[in-house]
Amino acid sequence: MTMIHLVRHAQVNNPTGILYGRLPNYRITESGECDARRVADFFSSRKVSALYASPLLRTQLSAKPISEALNLEIKTDNRLIEPYSYFEGKIVSGSNSALRSPRYWHLLRNPVRPSWGEPYESILSRMLSIISEAKDSEHDVVMVTHQLPIWIVHLHQLAKPLFHNPKTRRCTVSSITSFEYRDDSLVEAGYVECGLKCATNK
Predict the structure, then answer these.
(1) Which residue, of 32, 38, 110, 175, has the greatest Cβ tally within 10 A?
(2) Going by C-beta distance under 8 Å and a sequence separation of 6 or more, which residues neighbour residue 49?
């Protein structure tokens, strides 16, 4: 049975604390590079048919150790990309948060859709598209992507509403959320955290 593993990218170097979203040139940290190698170690004993990654730099860098360990080409796919947000490039937490400014409040008018970025249904549609294409692969498939797309798939397979509190997401950096199809239904089969281990072990 094919297992589809959704890997969240490693820790990102973001000293200014902005919402970097789809902005270019955001690399992973030294600890993130170490954690990405830990993810590669996790897959080294498994049979993997294909490796996909979002086109953003942080996901490409996170996928590289897996590519090297398994001798697989990284297949870049836009369906795995970070959802767009109108708050991209802005600080969205703390006393300087853009969310505190009345000039942006109109973007918060509909949290169910949500009105500040890509609709949850759009995220789910593109993620299910690439996952369904992979389900008949000979062996496992690895997809390096981002927190929100992974969590949206998680909520979908539980038949829960896609609207949620971001603080409730169980999807740390360099984590692996695994899914499989059972009787044509997508089911979560496992969750492993590999992230921030290197930082804590220093």
Answers:
(1) 32
(2) 2, 137, 138, 139, 140, 141
